[in-house]
Amino acid sequence: MALPTETERAFHAHDHSHCLHEGLARAEELARARGLRLTPVRRRTLEILLREHRALGAYEVLEHLAADGFGRQPPVAYRALDFLVANGFAHRIQRLNAFTACAHPGEDHQAVFLICRECQSVAEAPLDGPRDAVEAASDALGFRLERVSIEALGLCPQCAQAA
Amino acid sequence: MALPTETERAFHAHDHSHCLHEGLARAEELARARGLRLTPVRRRTLEILLREHRALGAYEVLEHLAADGFGRQPPVAYRALDFLVANGFAHRIQRLNAFTACAHPGEDHQAVFLICRECQSVAEAPLDGPRDAVEAASDALGFRLERVSIEALGLCPQCAQAA
DNA sequence: GTTAATATGTTATACTATAACCGTCAAGGA
DNA sequence: TCCTTGACGGTTATAGTATAACATATTAAC
Ligand SMILES: [Zn+2]
Ligand SMILES: [Zn+2]
Ligand SMILES: [Zn+2]
Ligand SMILES: [Zn+2]
Questions:
Q1: Can you give the residue ranges of every domain in chain A?
Q2: How far apart are CA B65 and CA A65, in angstroms?
Q3: B146 touches chain A (CB under 8 A)
Q4: In the complex, which nucleotide's C1' lies nearest to the CA atom of residue A96?
Q5: Is B148 within 8 Å of A151 when comparing Cβ atoms?
């Protein structure tokens, strides 16, 4: 049995404080290396996302920020989230109008998102295979592919078992 | 040279009145076969979508409907669009909060959507290959896949050439 | 024809996102 | 050091997207 990989974590019991601390440490390291400013609001926003393996709406994030003494107006949350997404620390889940912490920041941050329709947990799976397949379909139509977003809906292992 | 396939039409010059009439005829036939009620508003909504190979926002559709003497409040458009989507006559493009007529209603209506970021045209490509790849990724994580939505952003042949 | 279900229209409201403006602060050059 | 500049984070106000709840009208079933 191999140890659980990063992408498997979302769907299995694990020491979650590890995700949180490791995630923050990685982000700080990357920010330093790239000259990005991981300011208090931004850092706290990432922390809020990292606390859960599910996607949070901007207004949900905003509530947490406001409770922690940061601004309580929408732009505060949206700007922090935009920063995190732009720099690969978080992803936007289109189907949910929500955001989730990236499971492996720094690496190629494109991914397939597996969304549980029951418990809303979100996992990232490698994009490679699916992306190649989309690339082939694009080529056939003369479409110049730039970005591909894949969001799958279904049941996570726990919820599938329960059902 | 094969004739252009249904999915190639969006990106190439063609007799577009054909898309419109064929699309409406097919929808009516399918509705009859399945006992669905393709009412005037619904039919007109489909017609509005069929007039363009791009995605239209609900409020954009609503303007057309209102101009044609139908209701002018949001639910009128959303309900008609929901009906079309639920029955495979149209698709929702998450990234654009918009809707587009299905290029091949009646067949398996899942597809990869290729969205031109320049002219907003939308084409459908077969989902088979990409879906298999996503299925493989899901299986590896014990995720029970139900629906997969793939939206690719890039440049259509015309806009790619212009750039 | 009566009844039940479906569909269409309304008003009002909820949810999501951005524009525009201003004060603060840190970095960098005169 | 002082001043300029630009990034940041806070605000108010507003734009854009979507649905709840209710009333009327049409359609389908009996
Ligand atoms: Zn965890
Ligand atoms: Zn679940
Ligand atoms: Zn056409
Ligand atoms: Zn184009």
A1: 6-162
A2: 42
A3: yes
A4: C16
A5: yes
